[in-house]
Amino acid sequence: MFFICLFSVACVNSAAKQSSGIKVSPAKNNDANEFLNYAETFSNLSPEAQKQELAATNQALALNPNVLSHRMKLIMIYGLPGSNLADTTKAQNLLQQILQEDILFNAQLAFAHLLFDHLVAANKVAKNNRDDQKRIELLQQKNEALQLKLEAAQQKLDELKNIEKSMGEREIAPKK
Predict the structure, then answer these.
(1) What gap in Å lies between CA 78 and CA 57, rounded to an integer?
(2) Distance CA 5, CA 110 (A)
(3) CB-based contacts of 51: which residues, under 8 Å, 6+ apart?
(4) Cα(53)–Cα(74) distance, rounded to whole angstroms?
(5) Would residue 13 count as lying in a domain?
(6) Mean pLDDT, to the nearest integer, of 88-116?
(7) Residue 32 needs a FRET pair 20 to 30 A away by CA distance; which of 24, 48, 160, 168 works?
(8) Residue 20, CB half-sphere, CA atoms under 13 Å: how many?
C-alpha cells in the first residue's frame, strides 16, 4: 500500500510537471532510488563511520553547496531513525528549504514529502517527550516539597506526643 501511494504521488507529480512544460529527465526519476539506497547504507554504518560520512558530506557541501544529492545526504544523516547523529529539527529545516526551491522531480518529491512527514512526526514526539520530562521534573519537585512538609509535620507530631507523654507522667508521679 505504501509503495502504491508513493508511485501514485510520483505519477501525479510527473504528469503535472510534463503538462506545465517542464521536461522530466529519466535520470532524475531514479534519484529517489539513490536516496533510498543511501538511507539503507547509512543506517547500517557504525557510529564512527556515520561521523566520517557526516564529515565527508559537509566537506563536499563546502566545495559545492548546491549539489542536491549532498544536501539530501545531509538531511538523511540528521533525519534517519538509524542515525547516531540525529537532529530532526535541523533535518526538517534543510528539507523545507529544498522543498521551497521546487527542484525535486517525481519520485524525489514523493520521497522528500515522506521524509518531511517523518521529521515532523519525530519533532512532535521529541517536543512531547521534552514536555513530559518537564512535567515529571515538576512533579518530582512537588513530591520532594510534600515529603519535606510531611517529615516536618511528623516531627511536630512526635514532639507533641512527647509533651503529652511527659505531662501524663507528671500527673501520675507521686507528689513529695
Answers:
(1) 12
(2) 9
(3) 84, 85
(4) 9
(5) yes
(6) 93
(7) 48
(8) 9
Residue type for position 76: M
Distance CA 176, CA 99 (A): 99
Phi, psi of 173 (to 5 degrees): -60, 135
> What is the tally of structural domains in the chain?
1
Query: Which tens digits make up the pLDDT trace of 138-161?
Result: 999 999 999 999 999 999 999 999
The grid coordinates of residue 15 equal 504528469
Rounded Cα distance, 80 and 87, in Å: 9
Cβ burial 19-48 (10 Å sphere, 16+ → b, else e): eeeeeeeeebeebbeebeebbeebeebeee
pLDDT in tens, 70-99: 999 999 999 999 899 999 999 999 999 999
In tens, the pLDDT along 22-63 reads 233 333 444 688 999 999 999 999 999 999 999 999 999 999
Q: Is residue 51 part of a domain?
A: yes
Q: Is residue 105 part of a domain?
A: yes
Domain extent at residue 41: 2-127
With CA atoms as reference, report the closest residue to 45 among 79, 85, 7. 85
Q: Can you give the pTM of this predicted structure?
A: 0.64
Task: Give a yes or no: residue 27 inside a domain.
Answer: yes
Burial class (CB in 10 A: 0-12, 13-18, 19+), 120: middle
